[in-house]
Amino acid sequence: MSEKSSLLGNSPAFSAAVEAGQPPESGEELITKGRRWSKQDRIWNFLIVLCSTAAILTIAYFPPGSTRSVRPSHPAEVEVERVGRLPAMGWNTWNSFWCDIDETLVLEHAQLMKTLGLADAGYNHVNIDDCYSEKKRDADGNIVASAIKFPSGMKNLTDQIHAMGFKAGIYSDSGWFTCQMYPGSFQNEARDAKLFQDWGFDYLKYDSCTVPFDGLLKEGQVGKFKRMANAIQELAKTSGKPPLQFSLCQWGWEQPWLWAREFGQSWRTTGDIEANWRSVANIINRNSFIAWASDFYGHNDLDMLEIGNGELTYEESKTHFTVWALLKSPLLIGTDLRRATNQTIEILTNREIIAINQDPVVGTGVTPFRWGVNPDWTFDNTHPAQYWSGKSENGTIIMLINTLDEPQNMTFKLVESPWIRAGRQYTVRDLWTHTDNGTAVRNFTAKAVPPHGVAALLLKDAGDEPEGIYPPCVELEWCTHRNGTRYDQMESEL
Ligand code: GAL
């Protein structure tokens, strides 16, 4: 029995009627505890209950002595600022330097980000990854910055990073230790979040190594991240400062795209990237199935960029950058900027591509509309989906990836993309050559896309397509005249 019905008495018909805000139906006699009620009795009864309910509610809303006129919906609730609406951009120590890091290297890179034009292009985070601390916490239980690598202390470092116009990022782990066996934050979440904030960090990457036993976790893998997410929110409430931007690094193991949006602003979807095409193609394939999960404030993280590293060719690097940007992944540079070539910088600062990643109006990324080499929905780490599209502030984005080892002409019907209007023509802008490539009517072919290369196009509506084009529908299936004639059944006549 509900609380309400017990308060009003035992008659279901009576309580149902009162719940519905009506007096009980007249003409029907209600029997309670063997007593027959007259119609007058019932009306009185109804009025008494109505008045006492009103009185109880009034007292609850306006207790004696209360002066408030409007009751706040959640009196104890403090609004926490939202961070990370758009994918994070910046530089991170890990891909190039692993544990070989120190404050000089970090500051040097912050400076290079300015000199090389990366800061101007939007890269605004300088992030430290694993290995920055001593191996043991101090006597009070706090993480200690390595005296050798960061002798000036973390606060000093973040002050300098901030003075250069950047935000600062730090790293920890949801288990006992980090992947390189430095202290992790399990059971120290609130303490560490506070320390990171006191050190001046704005961003926290949170890893998944050294998992505590199930008997301790009880909440499963998700619970490890929830602990830190809660600590960050609590700290933001008590400190009044913005929450640390929270970047979950769970390698896609427990499908974080299904749950991590509740906790943080990005989540790794795959294992660690390597600086070769095999790894990039593998990440593209896996993400093709979950690309829908990115939107404002929550992004699939395809891992840090390898542009400028290892064996990636110029064309592969462009593809790598395009996919990451257009799927709305964080763009965290992972190369040694002291040795970066002009080509590396040219790729990383392609503003037309970055503009889509940082689109302030459309939060979602591109998704595949056709796989190409393979039948649609094929899981193939070597030949992932090739034909993708998505919306943007300025038009429809088309991304074509040549997964083959030789050049390929890549043709598509415009209406294969759900974001294209049938019966319209579109201007085509090439986001890598930075040229306008004419107007597409119904189809477009990107000619000779290089092996492992990419075409990134912005299509803008240019009005109705020319009159009299046949067939009357690009997609013939079920294309029907108003008189009922089906064009797909008279294909031979067309
Ligand atoms: C891995 C993570 C890498 C890097 C490394 C540090 O788990 O995926 O991006 O942070 O740990 O040990």
UniProtKB/TrEMBL annotation:
Residue ranges of domain Alpha galactosidase C-terminal in the record: 383-459
Catalysed conversion reaction: Hydrolysis of terminal, non-reducing alpha-D-galactose residues in alpha-D-galactosides, including galactose oligosaccharides, galactomannans and galactolipids
Organism superkingdom: Eukaryota
GO annotation terms (biological process): carbohydrate metabolic process
InterPro entries named among the record's database cross-references: Aldolase_TIM, GH, Glyco_hydro_27, Glyco_hydro_b, Melibiase_C
Pfam families membership: Melibiase_2, Melibiase_C
Keyword Signal: yes
UniProt keyword Metal-binding, yes or no: no
Ranges annotated as spanning the membrane: 43-62
One function term, GO molecular function aspect: alpha-galactosidase activity
First-tier enzyme category under EC: hydrolase
Keywords annotated in UniProt: Disulfide bond, Glycosidase, Hydrolase, Membrane, Signal, Transmembrane, Transmembrane helix
SUPFAM superfamilies, per the entry: (Trans)glycosidases (SSF51445), Glycosyl hydrolase domain (SSF51011)
Known EC number: 3.2.1.22
Family: Belongs to the glycosyl hydrolase 27 family.
Protein name, per record: Alpha-galactosidase
